[in-house]
Amino acid sequence: MTTHGKVMNPQALTSLYGEFPSLDGAELIGVNFRCDDPLLTAKFVTREKPRVNPKRWPQQFDEVIIELSFMGVGGLSFRDWGYRNAINKFELGSRGDRASVRISCENGTVLEFLCDWIRIESVNYGLVGTP
Fold it and tell me: Is the pLDDT of residue 1 over 90?
C-alpha cells in the first residue's frame, strides 16, 4: 500500500516497513469511537514483520501491533463486528479532499468511513509465544 497524503506521520511505519504496510491479513482487534473531533481509533495486529526492527524491540517477537487514529470521521458504516476480524482487504483512498477507508473482514465485518486526517498513534511488538 502506498502512503496516503492524509497520513500525518507516515514515517512511523515507513521507517520500519519501507512503505505503508498492507494490513490485508492482519486482524482488527479494537475500534474506539470518540465524539471529540469526531475520532475513530483502530488497533490492528499483523504477523508481517518490519524490514528494520527498532533497537529497543527484542530479537524475537511474534506480531506487530499498530494503532491508527482517524480524525474528522464522517459517513460511517460499521456492521457485523465479530470475535475474529481477519482483514480481507484494507483500502485507503481519496474522495475529494478527504481520505476514504474501507476495511472488510473474512467474518463479514465491514468498517468504512471518510476522514480528514490519519495519525499513526503507536507501533509496538507483541510476543505471544509458541504453543
Answer: no
Contacts 24+ apart (CB under 8 A), 82-85: 82/107, 82/108, 82/109, 83/107, 84/27, 85/27, 85/28, 85/29, 85/109
Q: What is the pTM of this model?
A: 0.91
Can you tell me the distance from the alpha carbon of 22 to that of 92, in angstroms, rounded to the nearest whole number?
10
Report pLDDT for 37.
85
Bridge-based pairing state of the strands 63-71 and 74-79: unpaired
Give the chain's radius of gyration (CA, Å): 15
Q: Residue 104: CB partners within 8 Å, gap ≥ 6? A: 87, 88, 89, 110
Exposed e or buried b per residue across 39-67, where buried means at least 16 C-beta atoms within 10 angstroms of its C-beta? bbbbbbbbeeebeeeeeeeeeeeebbbbb
Per-residue pLDDT of 102-114, as tens digits, reads 999 999 999 999 9
The more confidently predicted of residues 82 and 131 is 82
Residue 75 three-state SS: strand
